[in-house]
């Protein structure tokens, strides 16, 4: 496996991607964690910090950061996949607000650890600008701000921008306005996950790479090389979860794909802006996301790759030439200054995890010793840190503000069996795409797409 080819980010880390030694054979631990992405590593980090006597083993099928954590858009944001109104409906307004405020604090917590551990991940706390480039998008920007106000969140949390203010941050084509939140940092995601792995090792945790876990059960993580027996077993496998026995319908792996340009000249950046390295998007239905990298590239991604029958996850699915071409075209539409031949140098993708009710969750069952976290959809960079801190509290039997949050021990329903799952996910994607195209053409909202987003609870 040529790991640097998995993403622009993994190709630009500050270390050779040599796998750590695999599990040599049967062993014991106090906690075994399956998966060395952000979720597994943050859990190890906080557990080891809280109780340095714990023997913690992390088992990773490939290398730390192989999954979405080494490939994502690098938005360390306060976004949470369940909206505030949906959380409020299920758990009450106070619980929803507590979740939102904790997510905001989580961005600061990641920044604190990055500084404390000396993780060189190009951290830039520049916020997020979401542009409105059509009438319906502008209506959605206004609605987002109104919704925030109803929950008592002021302009310091989410501000409505007019065309001039939005363009001053990100001078895309045809900007009519937008929204801005300060609660996001742009990061180099692979440097974050790789730095975190080293920080975890400094805390005495053992990481075995190239060690795929074939099965998880109470008290054991079984691999072809041997079994790790531990009273606590943490599943931190996100988009790869369906490959574990018994987990096929737990989350649907949905692919997000990205491209990166070559480093752009200073005169181009003068035209585009993003001077504070704000992360950026617009208010269309099918999510797009971008950041200005520390070395002056545009890293830009979107969903829209097809969901694969049977929740299959394969390396070949990371690359969809049709989606890469669409991303490149969209970048050119947003920033005509890039010219007709947008200078893309890297293209990649990876699976993220979507629960049936679009709700991320973190949980621990003391009776079985089984713990899990995930279902973050596209918001796992920040949320996984909160998951790690929460799991550390849950596993140690502490009742804290974190363990009282509404996502704790939430059980999402399982996805439908095939072919219903395939039909539902792909039909929804197609509907949202055609709605966005229609809006940009005719500048009017699509009721059907709004209904579909609502059905998915997003
Ligand atoms: C292209 C893309 C862009 C994204 N952009 C953003 C963004 O900008 N902001 C944001 O917040 N989120 C984003 N996300 C989502 C975010 O990256 C994920 O939510 C987050 O990285 C999940 O971390 P994780 O540790 O739970 O999962 P992963 O990083 O996927 O880690 C899971 C790990 O478990 C390992 N594993 C799986 N099965 C086994 C097994 N059986 N045995 C051993 N090891 C196993 C895998 O190899 C992998 O390393 C994006 C995702 C993608 C794919």
Characterize the main sheet. Answer: 6 strands, mixed
How far apart the termini lie comes to 36 Å
- How are strands sequenced across the largest beta sheet? 9-3-2-13-20-19
How many distinct helices?
11
Q: Kindly state the mean pLDDT as a whole number?
A: 92
What is the 3D shape? globular
The radius of gyration is 21 Å
How does this model look, in words?
By secondary structure, the protein is α/β, with parallel strands linked by helices. 33% of the residues lie in helices and 20% in strands. It has eleven helices and 20 strands. The strands form five sheets. Strands 9-3-2-13-20-19 form a six-stranded mixed beta sheet, covered by helices on one side. The longest helix is centred in the first third of the chain and has 24 residues. The chain starts with 26 loop residues before the first strand and ends with a helix. The C terminus is likely disordered. It binds flavin-adenine dinucleotide. The site of flavin-adenine dinucleotide has 44 residues, from helix 1, strand 4, strand 14, strand 18 and helix 9.
What characteristics describe this protein?
11 helices; disordered C terminus; alpha/beta; globular; 458 residues; binds flavin-adenine dinucleotide; six-stranded mixed beta sheet
